[in-house]
């Protein structure tokens, strides 16, 4: 599409607006860059202040805990005696541990360290658990795998850090941690007497949200503890915590290396340091974060003010430039807008141009064109009420292109007929009969439409539908059979409702055949209909009538069954010669799938029927009669078996004539 050249005034206004907004953008970018640099320079100093405050808290806490440990281990004879007794060789060790645990629990009111510490654990000299604050009655666990315990055994005391989520000795996680997540800084003191170790005491303090909250008050920055692939504590809001938790498995930045990250939809400046110096493999990162977007929030207000100012100036420029040209461009714009609406399907689009010149003539021509299109659309929609949209589209396209009125197609034809219509019409009032017919037609139409078929005609109490035209489809035979079965299922489902209304259930007979037909517009020059002509139409109609012979609902020809493929469930019924045709038709009954409680019985009936049919064709009438009798005994409602049993009454008692044939001759259409 060619681009319409703009007027000089419009182009000048656009250039002025572009320069204005470029200048505003450069100024705002410069202000934002300067502000960001200032924020980052202040962040470094506040980071150092936060880390220094943490180190002071850790140092003071360590001194207090170590002082309490020394006091407990060296200055409490009773406590030392309890551990010495539990560690004596030759005693019943489990009982000794249980007794020591009981003694420690009795001493707890006199042990301030146990009450004040988040973690308080006592073991004997061999490293076996005597008492843990998290599970007061638990004893006997082996703590020798803890690095801090081994170090205390060598040096008399040790310190370290435990991180939830990192590998620990089997079964010790619940003994060591007060809850599922956390970071605990621990100190260990050996309980010794005369140079011999009697046991160990472990005390620990958690690094938690409360501690980080105090550090935030000092530094003005948000903080978080990350270690062992988890987020353990933070001062961040929940949305930012979720993003940070998802990244906790990553490697934290090295000390002094700033980085910017998007967390919770906001930009943060992030720097990290060791939460506990010298923790080694159990390293926990202290992340210090500053919300860059919050610091630059004032720029948003400035940006909005500048944008509003720019828009105001630009609006004045546009009004001045466009006001002069408006008298000419307004009618053209109205025509363009109406044309776009018309192209989008709004056929009621009209324009009103009163300039008194060629533009007014153009507007009148446009309105005449829109009226013609609206009339054509109204005709098409009315047409689609009587034929399917596909048929309507094809007929209209042929009218436009002048193509052939009909063409040869391989299609599948289905005739639906309402059984007992005459007696129903006699019994019911005309309004009831019409309502019943409309319900029946609606059910059949829905079944056909669901399989993309064409309902070609409603005639009396019958429906003619076909597949494969106007749209070609490779599986038209299978779709036709599925639609027939679906219509029967829907009629059966509606029957209880009709019976409650005192109406008899509707029974439908259906014939299906696949073959070549001439499909297209049929009729006189001034009045036509869309339909199909060919032998396939006649045979499908005859098969529908053949249901009366066999007491069946759906009959299909061999051509249809072969085209539908193995997905279709059928049984062969007979060889039939219908009225008006010389050749025989191999007849099949289309059945629902074998499932449910009666599946086994139905399958046996079909096997017996197949045996009887084979014997009949081979003139083994004794075997045939026995097979059909057994089938009727299993299913008294099996119409085809009952039909064959009636044929035995017509067999001559003496020898069969030489021209006897197993092909059944239909007596009526």
Structural class of the secondary elements? alpha+beta
CATH class of the largest domain: Alpha Beta
Provide the number of structural domains: 4
Number of strands: 19
Taking the sheet with the most strands, its summary is: 9 strands, mixed
Uncertain regions: pLDDT < 50 for 5+ in a row?
A: 251-256
CATH architecture of the largest domain: 2-Layer Sandwich
Report strand %.
15-25%
How would you describe what is shown here?
- This protein has helices at 8-75, 77-86, 93-107, 112-116, 147-155, 173-176, 209-219, 238-246, 292-295, 297-343, 358-384, 389-401, 421-427, 430-450, 476-500, 535-550, 558-564, 599-617, 621-634, 639-647; strands at residues 119-124, 129-132, 157-163, 183-193, 196-206, 222-227, 230-234, 259-263, 266-274, 285-291, 406-419, 454-459, 462-467, 507-523, 528-533, 554-557, 570-577, 585-590, 663-665.
- Strand 8 and strand 9 (266-274) form a beta hairpin.
- Helix content is 51%, strand content 21%.
- The strands form three sheets. Strands 11, 12, 13, 14, 15, 16, 17, 18 and 19 form a nine-stranded mixed β-sheet that branches. Strands 2-1-5-4-3 form a five-stranded antiparallel β-sheet, with helices on both faces.
- 32% of the residues are buried.
- By secondary structure, the protein is α+β, with helices and mostly antiparallel strands.
- The protein has four domains: 76-206, PAS domain (Beta-Lactamase, 2-Layer Sandwich), CATH 3.30.450; 220-294, PAS domain (Beta-Lactamase), CATH 3.30.450.20; 405-593, Nucleotide cyclase, GGDEF domain (Alpha-Beta Plaits); 596-669.
